[in-house]
Amino acid sequence: MTDFHVPVWGYWMMGLGFAAFVALLISYIHKNRGFRRPIFASPYVLWIIVFTVIPCLLVAYFSFTDPQGNFTFDNFKNFWDSNFNARKAMDPELIRQYEDMGLTLNDLGLSRDSINIDTLVFSLWMAFLCTVICLLLGYPAAHIMADREFKLGPTLVILFIVPMWMNFLLRTIAMMSLLEDNGLINSVLEMIGVGRQKLLNNLAAVQLGMVYNFLPFMVFPIYNVLNKMDYKLSEAAMDLGCDKWQTFYKVTLPLSVPGVVSGITMVFMPAVTTFYISRLLGGGKVQLFGDLIEAKFLSTSLNEWNVGSALSLIMMILILASLGLLRKVDPEGEGGGIV
User: Fold this and answer.
1) Which fold has domain 115-329?
2) What are the C-alpha distances in Å from 15 to residues 19, 22, 61, 219, 332?
3) What does pTM read for this prediction?
4) pLDDT higher than 60, residue 273
5) Rounded to whole angstroms, how far apart are CA atoms 336 and 165?
6) To 5 degrees, how large is the angle CA 139–CA 144–CA 146?
7) In a 3-state reduction of DSSP, which class is residue 53?
8) Position 195 pLDDT exceeds 50
9) If DSSP codes are grouped into helix, strand and coil, which group holds residue 140?
10) Mean pLDDT within 87-116
11) Where are the chain's structural domains?
């Protein structure tokens, strides 16, 4: 276990934040001569400050410092070149000796390595595919469930909600039992004469697990918007001569954009940061950006923890950009609900 401590100013910040919260609370009670409704939101404000704002500040702090607490951009340089720290730690005189022997950095395995960037791009691509598949599957499902003439719509909503009551890890393990060599799917394939297939520990299994876990987060925001939509608009469009496809294209689809954008954001963000799905269903053969960050924090090297913080900060910036897009397209949060 590494000897890694929160800096002293971190404890001071948490203490001052708590003291400021108490002072504001007392001032509010004194000013209003008692309790008012907004004061009951105070515990949530304190929770956000202690468990969201301060941890984000600590991640930013470690991103721009070395293990000794000195300011540096080396952690981000290591993101661009994963061998940067190894070259920096190597004695320059020793490097010159190797060069005199005709050996290059490439021969020493110290040339620029883009594995961090490649992993990020690959994770973005996997998350993009997951989002597209969830959209193609989720929009028709949400449209069917929101159709007032479809009597089984509420039943389908319940069927989508029930798996979400189960722990995320348990759902992924259940998927493993279906895909393994002696699992249910392979047993059925063998019974019908197709033969057993390699369904687990590959890229397709990881993508299937991502779609399976994140599909409800695409369905419900779209369903929420479609269910609230005024159906008189569709009836008016059909009265004006539009058929069902024209009504869908000109009325339903544009009105459902907030739900679509919300669903895309809610699927893309966890998909690009996931790591446990790739570990269980990929068998260690598929590495996503979340796996890379986890490996940095599990490393016994203190410097890797700072690099992991830098990678986390980069990921947080991507998430904030996605949230900014959601806020711009859906400022009222119309597609943010579950049901």
Assistant:
1) MetI-like fold (1.10.3720)
2) 6, 11, 17, 42, 35
3) 0.79
4) yes
5) 19
6) 95
7) helix
8) yes
9) helix
10) 65
11) 8-63, 115-329
